Amino acid sequence: MTQSLQSVDILVAHESVALRRLLASTLSDAGYVVAEAGHLEAGFDALYAGKPQLAIINARMPNRTALKLALAAKAQGAKLLVIDDKVSPHETSLSIGAFTDAQFVNRRNARGRMVEAAAALIGPAGSQSQASAAAA
């Protein structure tokens, strides 16, 4: 289920509408509640309102959006999965310190690895909602 401004499991932040929707759809089909953001303000809205456990961010978003979203996501306690097809994770983490503890996936195989990566980072779909309900 793709949602915005409600409790979500995962935020997908990417400036490409097509890729963002493809990734969000893949994760939604697997049972995760997903918010999408194509720019900084939408990303902040989703982070602060939805409190996702995982932020999937394209490292190459314009105007340092990726850096700002990564820092905000980490401040909210979210784990990071970074999509980057230009440089290695090591080079990115050196140039953008916010990504030093993030997991990386190459854009060319991002869709195929999204559900597996999300499950490894935050658990299988449904476990987040159940854990939140149990804590309430």
Please, could you describe this protein's structure?
The chain is built from six helices and five strands, in the order βαβαβαβαβαα. With 136 residues, the protein is α/β, with parallel strands linked by helices. The chain has a five-stranded parallel β-sheet with strand order 2-1-3-4-5, sandwiched between helices. β4, α4 (89-95) and β5 form a beta-alpha-beta unit. Residues 1-5 and 130-136 have low confidence and may be disordered.
- Give the helices and strands as they follow along the chain: EHEHEHEHEHH
The shape is: globular
Mean pLDDT: 79
Distance between the first and last residues' Cα: 22 Å
What is the structural class?
A: alpha/beta
Percentage of residues in strands = 15-25%
Biggest sheet strand line-up: 2-1-3-4-5
Low-confidence stretches: 1-5, 130-136
* Biggest sheet character: 5 strands, parallel
- Number of separate helices: 6
State the share of residues found in helices, binned by percent: 40-55%
Radius of gyration (Å): 13 Å
**What is the β-strand count?**
5
